[in-house]
Design a protein that fits this description.
elongated
Length: 110
């Protein structure tokens, strides 16, 4: 009963989205779904969600690297907490754009 209720609630909170998808990607999604023993629609949802999460990170990194948003705003855009975003910056070899007073204030809080 709990599983059915959770499934029903998750369906209620979803929107229907329709878009054109290249045949090659459709076949790949179907193949992945088969490999994982899942419904194709579940695979599409996961692929789409993964893509959105990655796009958020790309936009955040780009805006932060250009200096158009603060590190806090970039973390928010990325969907990560500040520490996770700092790890992402390090992983991508992006320089920290922090004024000295912010670094000193952060060090004093530790």
């Amino acid at each position: 009963l709990n599983i059915r209720l959770c499934t029903l609630l998750s369906v209620i909170n979803m929107e229907f989205v329709s878009f054109r998808f290249p045949e090659k990607n459709k076949k790949t999604a179907e193949w992945l779904a088969e490999l994982e023993g899942r419904k194709t629609s579940d695979e599409y949802r996961e692929i789409f969600t993964t893509g959105i999460n990655e796009k958020r990170k790309q936009v955040a990194l780009s805006k932060y690297a250009k200096g158009t948003v603060s590190i806090e705003k970039a973390a928010e855009i990325s969907g990560l907490n500040l520490w996770e975003f700092l790890d992402l910056i390090k992983e991508k070899n992006i320089s920290l754009n922090l004024p000295a007073e912010k670094i000193i204030a952060a060090a004093n809080r530790i």
